[in-house]
Amino acid sequence: MQLKTAIGDMVSDAYLSKLENDKYKGKKGQPTRPDKELVIALADVFRANQDYVLNLAGYPTEIKVLPSELAIIDYDGFDEQDLEEIAEYINFKRAQKEKKANK
């Protein structure tokens, strides 16, 4: 099934292409996020968790998205608090590296 067929007339081909290629900019030249309804439709098309995809698109949800680095960790023995602390540390280290790179 093609993506355009699955989401119907919600967006034009040009808009969808710009979203796919991260080329859609708002009035001030900043990237904009797609409408919430479109994000939900795309999540459904790809059979992804709606809250997860909404969170990635910048919409507030009840879930917390952990860094992708945590996908390879054996979770046995870790509770939610442990994982949040690990995620915070990864984000802290990432910010430190970015700060050094920008000096």
Verbal overview:
The chain has 103 residues and is mostly helical. It has five helices and no strands. The protein has helices spanning 3-7, 13-20, 36-45, 50-56, 80-101. Helix 3 (36-45) packs across helix 4. It is extended, with a radius of gyration of 17 Å. It starts with a helix and ends with a helix.
Structure keywords:
50% helix; 5 helices; mainly alpha; single chain; 103 residues
Question: What's this model, at a glance?
Answer:
It is built from five helices and no strands.
Count of separate DSSP helical elements:
5
Share of residues in strands: under 5%
The count of strands amounts to: 0
Order of helices and strands: HHHHH
Helix coverage percent: 40-55%
Rg from C-alpha positions?
A: 17 Å
Q: Could you report the average pLDDT, rounded to the nearest whole number?
A: 78
User: Terminal Cα separation, in Å?
Assistant: 47 Å
Major pleated sheet: none
Low-confidence spans: none
Structural class, from helix and strand content? mainly alpha
Shape estimate: extended
Write the layout of secondary structure elements.
Blueprint: H1 3-7, H2 13-20, H3 36-45, H4 50-56, H5 80-101
